[in-house]
Amino acid sequence: MFDPKVLTEEKSLAQIAWRSRRIPSNGFNVLVMIVTVATATTYAYWSSRPSSSLVELDRLIASTGLTLSTTVLGFLIAGFTIFATLTKPSLFQRMAIITHQKSGLSYLKYNFFTFIQVFIHYLCYTAFTWLLLIIGAKEGPLGEAAQRAFDNPVVIKSFIARLGLVVLVAWSAYVLLILKSFVFNIFHVVMTAIRWEFEKPEETGTSNNDR
Q1: Most CB within 10 Å of its CB: which of 58, 66, 158, 167?
Q2: CA–CA distance from 205 to each of 115, 194, 201 (Å)?
Q3: What does the domain layout of the chain look like in residue ranges?
């Protein structure tokens, strides 16, 4: 017997993020991320550019990423609105009682978590790049803290700049990959809703000849 209370079990985005870990990873996305992280790490480790140049590169990536992520969030909201408004309540109800085998979630939560997961990543990425631009500004808090806390701030500054480069490149690539997946999911959901309308009479035992 289906209990509707399970639909409102999650009380925060943190709980949704935790439970969405069950959603299987996309193999193509994983492969691209491995190559991206390996390439960025190799470049950051072997680059002969001075730390000041790497810091400027980090700021450029963070600034570009912040601009793009805030713009894309508007697109994500529009896409999610399409999903929420075009999908029929009867389809939502059917999805709620069918379990997605690989994740153990209902198909309803599997689809909603897939969309919300993208929102969470973009919100976190936006917050990270915004915070990095503030604390990593020229003569900002991060540089001042490194200057005061360590005996050799030049080495620490170089390490932070190289680590920041890897994190920024990897995370920027990841949010682009999940955006690609989001576009496909919007298409798939709309097609599923249309297919449901065609197949619904058969599901309820009503044929076209009975009309």
Answers
A1: 58
A2: 32, 18, 6
A3: 50-204
